[in-house]
Design brief:
Elements (H helix, E strand, L loop, with lengths): L3 H6 L1 H11 L4 H36 L5 H33 L37 H6 L23
Helix pairs in contact: 2-3, 3-4
Length: 165
């Protein structure tokens, strides 16, 4: 998942990462545009909602002469708030669709390209030598079902994993 703060403040870094992965850097522009549209829709909704709350307070404090005009205005504003809320949901969905295809940021020290272009950075420990331990590759493949096949040495079998015969 892309850090939205980085997407908003440093889209060039995200574009570079997309390029290093061999993916489309134009996806970043679409995500930034969708983010701006979502944030604008949210700001508009919050402004209308604050206006609606303020108008509700005015209606509660209004006298009988001004109340009908305020109620008409409240009803009209309520429709605008519902439209703005629907617009926010649409913009949020569009934003998620735009951000979803973006890959995580690549470390600057990683080589350019796909998985076949890897480099080993660090090796820890010694890999097991299964053949030296008595396991041929075919035996390992047969035992992949995690039961204790009869081809395993007796010391490796246990009653919890099947027959010991």
């Amino acid at each position: 998942m892309i850090d939205l703060h980085i997407l908003r403040t440093d889209p060039d870094r995200v574009r570079e990462s997309q390029t290093r992965r061999g993916e489309d850097p134009n996806l970043v522009d679409a995500a930034v545009a969708a983010d701006s549209a979502h944030r604008a829709a949210l700001t508009d909704f919050e402004r209308l909602r604050a206006e609606q709350k303020d108008l509700g307070r005015q209606v509660a404090a209004a006298d009988a002469d001004t109340r009908p005009a305020l109620l008409v205005r409240t009803k009209e504003l309520s429709g605008r708030v519902k439209q703005a809320e629907a617009h926010v949901r649409e913009a949020e969905e569009a934003f998620h669709r735009a951000v979803e295809p973006l890959s995580n940021l690549v470390d600057e020290s990683a080589p350019v390209g796909g998985e076949e272009d890897f480099t080993v950075i660090d090796k820890r420990g010694t890999p097991r030598d299964f053949e030296k331990e008595g396991f041929a590759p075919a035996t390992i493949l047969r035992s992949a079902n995690f039961s204790a096949p009869s081809t395993w040495p007796a010391a490796r079998r246990s009653p919890a994993h099947g027959s010991t015969t």
